[in-house]
Write a structure and sequence with these properties.
Elements (H helix, E strand, L loop, with lengths): L1 H8 L29 E5 L11 H14 L4 E5 L5 H10 L6 E5 L3 H9 L3 E4 L10 H8 L4 E4 L14 E4 L4 H12 L2 H18 L2 H26 L13
Parallel strand pairs: 1-2, 1-4, 2-3, 4-5, 5-6
């Protein structure tokens, strides 16, 4: 969106991302469950009108993951009219017992779903994925991310540092990236730490509020210069012309 506005607004564009409540989305406390099945988490709308979320590709990818890691689990959080479609897809691939649809979660239940996962997958397929809130929520819980290299996702995920980016619609690439993280606990932990540091530096609400204040103060300063040049306040219209 910023690139689309740039030809019209020039340098007068500022990008301020969403943020995550780091008092709510927290890493799992020490002493939590240490032995758990490798778990891939998806969080988002599960609607036919939101097919661009790429859940069909995720289920195909998980089928490949499951062949290599039979203990692996896929957990999908969200609701919508496509849930039954994806249930049938999982059944046709023989992985129904390893795919869980949790429905819509919020608050503590959503945080726990992140904490109990091994990684978050966001397999979006089009530019409509402008950011990916589920990405920074997972990072705040120290979880690595596997996501599509599309839309605004690459501005959030640093490939090889806090997650892995794959071509959109590439089920085999998605499976390979998930397997790389699931099979390498040290890599998963390092990516989780890197993502957590990024969230604490860039994606907390206080930092976003500070950025908005900087922008507003710059605008106020610009308006003050206008007053000095034209002898009027920004709220005073010019006289003698059309309004």
């Amino acid at each position: 969106m910023r690139e689309r506005l740039r030809p019209h607004a020039g340098p007068k564009t500022e990008l301020v991302t969403p943020a995550v409540d780091t008092d709510v989305f927290l890493p799992e406390l020490s002493g939590g469950q240490t032995e758990q099945a490798p778990t891939i988490l998806f969080v988002g709308r599960i609607e036919r009108s939101s097919a661009s979320k790429g859940i069909d590709h995720l289920i195909k990818a998980f089928h490949l993951v499951h062949r290599e890691l039979p203990a692996a689990q896929l957990v999908l959080v969200g609701g919508g009219d496509a849930v039954d479609d994806h249930r049938r897809a999982a059944a046709s691939l023989g992985i129904s017992d390893s795919v869980t649809f949790r429905g819509v979660l919020s608050g503590k239940a959503l945080v726990e779903a992140n904490q109990q996962s091994s990684l978050l997958a966001l397999p979006s397929t089009t530019e409509t994925e402008s950011f990916g809130m589920s990405i920074i929520e997972a990072m705040a819980c120290k979880k690595p991310v596997v996501a599509s290299d599309v839309g605004g996702i690459p501005s959030v995920v640093d490939h090889g540092s806090d997650g892995l980016l794959v071509p959109p619609g590439d089920a085999e690439g998605l499976a390979s990236a998930c397997l790389e993280i699931l099979r390498t606990p040290g890599l998963a932990a390092a990516m989780g730490e890197a993502g957590y540091r990024k969230v604490m530096e860039l994606y907390t609400w206080p930092s976003r509020i500070d950025r908005y204040e900087e922008i507003f103060n710059a605008i106020i300063g610009s308006d003050s210069n206008t007053v000095a040049r034209h002898g009027r306040t920004p709220s005073q219209p010019r006289t003698g012309g059309r309004s």
